[in-house]
């Protein structure tokens, strides 16, 4: 089956629709759908649009079919991901597409989810529907990279975030870091937090900053999802008087501890409303990998790691960072003891440096904001 001239245009429209579900649909993928009916007089006419709006709610195809109001006989349906063919939280989309009399389905990519994995395409073809896939596939894969990573590896998409001075410091020599970036940058961080499944920091950062790690918007908008606050704390020594523990019954708090942690400390944190995960790894790097596996088992799709330098460095050393957001403020701290964003071992040869695969750079207030997906050292 071959593509037609309008296919890329309508698929791009479907991709733009899909993005509107970001932060609301995970661990499901973002999916958009456009239904087009051809007419020799007026040409191609979009009769229906839809996107997957929230986890557990109808899929994009169902919304688009409803929007088309019965004008689907002989139409072409553009969708960013293979229609599902199994009964999950919602009925199979493939059957709805067949029942609507759609003549042709154009999909951006195959769904690797084991209960679909080509089955949706096969069902459509068996019903006599022409199926084309691979239109803007790379764009669709980039859009749903976190979903694809979770399906293929069982681990969440790891996003590193830090604010630093022009001389590369995330804290002064005394450990103070409030505030490096400006209010405009901090508002972007709040938006990032609002679509995360978890926000992760090390115990030292929690101790020095005493953060809440919640998503707060200056506009008062409700966050897309409530992120779990995850503290890497081998000894389970997080203070019971910290803001994190005192709010543990309001917002989820997970303390990732070692199995060697003091049982009384674990008991105290649990009694205060925190969940303590005991990780058996012999080293901090092993426990970090075990934590990622556990968060993946919980179907967490996106996690935001905000520091400190040792935690971020360990994740980079382990090759576990997928995306980075860096805010650079026009100021200097100096000091050989002042903290840098990435500790750990680092790389030995400059040619093996981590690089952005795709990135954006813009001015936000007085700061420079650089963000994008990363290319791991080879």
What is the N-to-C order of secondary-structure elements (H for helix, E for strand)? HEEHEHEHEHHEHEHEHEHEHEHEEE
Mean pLDDT: 92
First-residue to last-residue Cα separation: 38 Å
β-sheet strand percentage:
15-25%
Total count of helical runs of at least 4 residues: 12
Oligomer: single chain
SS class: alpha/beta
Instruction: Give the overall shape, derived from the CA principal axes.
Output: elongated
Could you tell me the number of beta strands? 14
Task: Order the strands across the largest sheet as they lie in space.
Answer: 10-9-8-7-11-6-12-14-13
Largest sheet: 9 strands, mixed
Task: Provide the fold topology.
Blueprint: H1 7-18, E1 32-37, E2 45-51, H2 60-68, E3 76-79, H3 93-99, E4 104-107, H4 119-126, E5 130-133, H5 137-143, H6 145-153, E6 157-165, H7 183-193, E7 198-202, H8 203-209, E8 228-232, H9 243-246, E9 253-258, H10 263-271, E10 275-279, H11 284-297, E11 302-307, H12 309-317, E12 323-329, E13 355-364, E14 367-375
Helix pairs in contact: 3-4
Task: Report on the architecture of this protein.
By secondary structure, the chain is α/β, with parallel strands linked by helices. Helices cover 28% and strands 23% of the residues. It contains twelve helices and 14 strands. The strands form two sheets. Strands 10-9-8-7-11-6-12-14-13 form a nine-stranded mixed beta sheet, sandwiched between helices. Strands 2-1-3-4-5 form a five-stranded mixed beta sheet, sandwiched between helices. Helix 4 links the parallel strand 4 (104-107) and strand 5. Helix 3 packs parallel to helix 4. The longest helix is centred in the C-terminal third of the chain and has 14 residues, at 284-297. It is elongated, with a radius of gyration of 23 Å. The two termini are 38 Å apart. 43% of the residues are buried.
